[in-house]
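User: I'm writing a short report section on ligand binding and want a predicted complex to refer to. Could you take this sequence and zinc ion and write out the structure as tokens? A short remark afterwards would be nice.
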Amino acid sequence: MKNVRYIAVNDCVDTANKNNDIAALKNVMNEFYSRDNSRKIRSSIRARAKAGLYRCSYAPFGYRKSSDNHNKLIVDEETAWIVKRIFELANAGMGAHKIASVFREEKVSCPSWWQHTRGEKNYPERFKNPQNQYEWSHTIIRNMIGNPVYLGHSVMCKTEAIFKVGKYKKLPEEEWIRTDNTHEPLVTQEVFDGANAKILSRKRDTTNNFVSVFSGLVKCGTCGKALALRYWGRDRHRIYVCTAYAHNTKSCTDHRIYYDDLYEAVLADIQYHARLAFENKEKAVALAVKMNARMDGNRGKSNETKLKQARKRYDEVTRLFDRLYEDSLSGRISNENFTRLIDKYQTEQEKLLEQIATLEDVLQEVKDSQSNAVQWAELMVGYVGIMELTAENLNLLVERIEVSDRAETEDGMQQTVKICYRFGGYIGEQTVKTKMIRKPRKKRDCPRKTAMAK
Ligand SMILES: [Zn+2]
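Assistant: Sure. The structure tokens for the complex follow:
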């Protein structure tokens, strides 16, 4: 037992004295008491909620607490119009992100700024930057659109304090207490339903229904990071954007490409190569070998020549060695020169052996690439006449897809899509004509590429 002295003044307990049996019992009683208290408070809270009495510390944005009755919500004339506007915009099909950016542009003050100015909550750091007054979060907007408080109903007891922990837990929806028509509504049921239906349909499209066939395969041709699927513009076009750029616009350029354009380009490339492999396998194999050799900086051919030269020189040096010994024995060479030349030839011989080993390795790789090319062509033959891309067939055929940024050419804006095939390597290359999505930005060097070039 640790040497701790426990004193409870109210209960006359001091562990320094003997006779403390009662302390343990009192502790249990206290626990019962506070548990009971907590239960009573909770049931009183629920009873008040059922009576439609507003009990939170702050009124929801757009409302104020009535000055003569703190449990009643009244319309806040200063902010109610903002709530109404959010619902109107959402009902017109605008998403929460877009509404937030509209408010930022129009310099509409955000809820926390109102709380801060009214002394309800204190944000000493946030509003040192005056720009933050208009910094709306899309989460707040989305939560507001789903909140039935704006229909004049009260939904309370969504959370509950956990006994003695001082934290709140979320309650399941069936335990929430909803009381209708407790205060003046800010929106009609029709507008509320419309706004919610549109926000929900938008969410479902991005998260549940649509699965990109390119998942995990598309990379940025500049920085190598993944491209991520985004939804763009009024028509919610699917586009891919460099994630490095999305995270920080200075770290790369956007590399944006329409999902549909990417799909067409990749499908066309597979169709072309599958047909080639089907009609002329040797040609397809030769193409794969050629493309890989190009990637290797044409190492294959020159290396064979280099290996021949190195072997020839090695034989020469070996012969020179033998002659040197003969010369030394017959006294045709001085001891001094003999040592010097022996050293020289030995060093050269070692270097040549090393060079020969490296070249043999490289040539073996080329041979492997030949057999890989055959394997690739055989795989492609099976996909002749392919009509659609699926995650399955793509992952069987393709290792990686690289999208370059748009570039101005005589034919207008273009970007290339490079396809690295399984076994085959970088064989496919398609040029995509870029539809104008947005004015192209000034090209910036990708930091990774700049680092690599050094
Ligand atoms: Zn990038």
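A remark for your report: The first helix runs from residue 21 to 50. Residues 439-454 have pLDDT under 50 and may be disordered.
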